[in-house]
Amino acid sequence: MTDRSTKPSILVVCTGNICRSAMADVILTDRAAKRGLDVVIDSAGISDEEAGNPIDDRAQRVLRDAGYEIPWHAARQVKSGELADYDLVLAMTDRHRAALYRIAERDGVGADNIRMWREFDPSLPEGTPVGTDLDVPDPWYGGHEDFLDTLEVVEGAADNVLDAVTDAR
């Protein structure tokens, strides 16, 4: 197990950990490696309904087509007590963020490290308030184009996410 206390660390969270957060995990890992950054990157879901499942086949396809290696992945639920272990915990939707706040409160830890993925999206106007719809689109109920849209949003913010966590150290 990697010691998160010595390296910048990121946890990305969506619903089941098979689409959005898993895609972000793959993209962040790829970008960090290409930039020579030693960053701990992980992903999880707020639900356990997909626990143990691989990245959704449709997400794998768009990632592979975009040139990413598809790692072994087993979806998992956010564990009690782990939020404080990460420098940055990124929610894919406001609903995910609310769930993460509840977990942090239940665990008795601060929530200053919990942010929205799209807060780092350079295509949004600077100063876009967090109360604005910052949800990363959920491709689950859609088709191939929906997964491509999600890929675009996730890729768009990835470098800024890495900059934020490495600059903070």
From TrEMBL:
<feature type="active site" description="Nucleophile">
    <location>
        <position position="14"/>
    </location>
</feature>
<dbReference type="InterPro" id="IPR023485">
    <property type="entry name" value="Ptyr_pPase"/>
</dbReference>
<dbReference type="InterPro" id="IPR050438">
    <property type="entry name" value="LMW_PTPase"/>
</dbReference>
<dbReference type="Pfam" id="PF01451">
    <property type="entry name" value="LMWPc"/>
</dbReference>
<feature type="active site" description="Proton donor">
    <location>
        <position position="138"/>
    </location>
</feature>
<dbReference type="InterPro" id="IPR017867">
    <property type="entry name" value="Tyr_phospatase_low_mol_wt"/>
</dbReference>
<keyword id="KW-0378">Hydrolase</keyword>
<feature type="domain" description="Phosphotyrosine protein phosphatase I">
    <location>
        <begin position="8"/>
        <end position="164"/>
    </location>
</feature>
<dbReference type="InterPro" id="IPR036196">
    <property type="entry name" value="Ptyr_pPase_sf"/>
</dbReference>
<dbReference type="GO" id="GO:0004725">
    <property type="term" value="F:protein tyrosine phosphatase activity"/>
</dbReference>
<keyword id="KW-0904">Protein phosphatase</keyword>
<protein>
    <recommendedName>
        <fullName>protein-tyrosine-phosphatase</fullName>
        <ecNumber>3.1.3.48</ecNumber>
    </recommendedName>
</protein>
<feature type="active site">
    <location>
        <position position="20"/>
    </location>
</feature>
<comment type="similarity">
    <text>Belongs to the low molecular weight phosphotyrosine protein phosphatase family.</text>
</comment>
